[in-house]
Amino acid sequence: MKNYNMNQIMLDIPTAYEPDKNHVAHYINELVEDMDVTIFYTTGRPLEYDPRLMMKLVLFAYTRGVRSGRRIAEFAQENIIAMWLTQEAQPSYRTINRFRVSDLSEAMISSAFSRFTKLLHDKGYIDDVIYIDGTKILADANKFSFVWKKNTIRFDKMNTVKAQQLIQDIMAEQQSLQLPEYTDLSVEELDDVIAHLESYLAKQEQQVVATQKVSPNPAKQARRNTKKHLNKVEHIRDKKLAYQHQIETYNERNSYSKTDTDATFMRVKEDYMQNGQLKPAYNLQIATNAQFVLGYGIFQNPTDTRTLMPFVDQLKQYETLGSTIVADAGYGSESNYRQLEDEYPATTVLIPYGTMLKETSKKWQTDERKVMNWNYCAEDDYYVDPRNVRFNFKRLSKRTDKYGFVRDFKVYEAEAQTENLEDIAAALTPKGYTRKITVNPAFEYHKAKIRSEFSKEENQAIYAQRKIDVESVFGRLKAYFGFTRFSVRGSSE
């Protein structure tokens, strides 16, 4: 039997242990060692620990589901593989937390994705296809700390009406106080009102001093009323400033959280009450291939449609964008198709539009209300519906959505009368108006292009892999790693 003695003096050899050859720690070590950290950290005080050491420790702890700063510090002391990666260095939890939220770690992670993608390509683990999908992750915020944009606008209008009524009351009470006429009562105009009241109050102070022996003193009562009005105007001005700050915080959103102003209230899958309650969250977008995450983005938009192009641009910047982009129908919109064709013409786009699968059904193809089932004459530019009503081109029309995207439409109007000037009943609506239809030629072009791409067998096989590839990553992220809520506040961190 081998002698076992805990009190025996031993020679300390930090590098005596090494993980198995195919252990994930070796890949983390190879990935991080390739980085040139000098380009990320050029100024500032000398670091206590090498950034590569810290990055290896954090990445390996994350693969083991350890995300708390204190737990990672314990992990570095107790896990033998973590000790091998850090060469038995033991950073404190404060050092770990400062590193995780620093600009240095963000720059290293961004660089790591491009290096990670290149490493996987070199080893033949992935091909040139990018699968994109998103999920909602709860923010580190109180779920009842909501601020709604519609309420802010409504309260601001009520506050303005209150200010207008207050100024009228002041003018009625204080006949000697002359105030200019105001229009919308902005913060600057309210400041002007406050300046007039303060000047008027100073004159009343002089009157009180001059008549201090008079009892009861009407000057004191007048001063008291002026102070009361001044306090009310200042309160209204402060509320207006608060509403302006809230509007700036919303940006293009409709809500935010008081405890994490970057978080937006969204519907998430973790709906324990089963009532569709909105919760503060972020829209996490990832790009995968062979279930490897090649890029990620954190967005404040609840819908995936408006996250696609910023995320694709980010993947291009980090050199992780493939030659084929695959996503579900939630990303299919005219604006996305147009921008992808203009900015990435060499990229194959496999993103179905919303009604693409429905259009293959018998019910859709036999629906007489669908313009796509009508006969179209390209030479004379007119449609004929199943009831033999002809729709001639009438005019062009434009629609601009709330985000500034402009769509062009062609308006067609039915021929309401025959050559004998007889009314055509089928050309009229139930209320007697002439029927009209609108067609978006640009969107129809993109839809035809998408249908053409999906008609190819190789593209069908690629799209069929989407759910297996990207959905599995979300499953492991939430179920295996237990990552259902952010631990750091703010989208930039």
TrEMBL record:
**Which positions are tagged coiled coil?**
none
Looking up InterPro entries in the UniProt record yields: IS1182_transpos (IPR047629), Transposase_11 (IPR002559), Transposase_InsH_N (IPR008490)
- The signal peptide stretch is none
- What Pfam families does its record include? DDE_Tnp_1, DUF772
Q: Which domain of life is it from?
A: Bacteria
GO process annotations (BP): DNA transposition
Entry's Gene Ontology molecular function annotations: DNA binding; transposase activity
**Taking every annotated instance into account, which residue ranges of this chain make up the domain Transposase InsH N-terminal?**
18-100
Query: Which residues are in the Transposase IS4-like domain?
Result: 256-490
Which PANTHER family does this UniProt record tie to the protein? TRANSPOSASE (PTHR33408), TRANSPOSASE DDE DOMAIN-CONTAINING PROTEIN (PTHR33408:SF2)
Q: What is this protein called?
A: IS1182 family transposase
The species this protein belongs to is Periweissella cryptocerci
Q: What is the lineage of its organism?
A: Bacteria, Bacillati, Bacillota, Bacilli, Lactobacillales
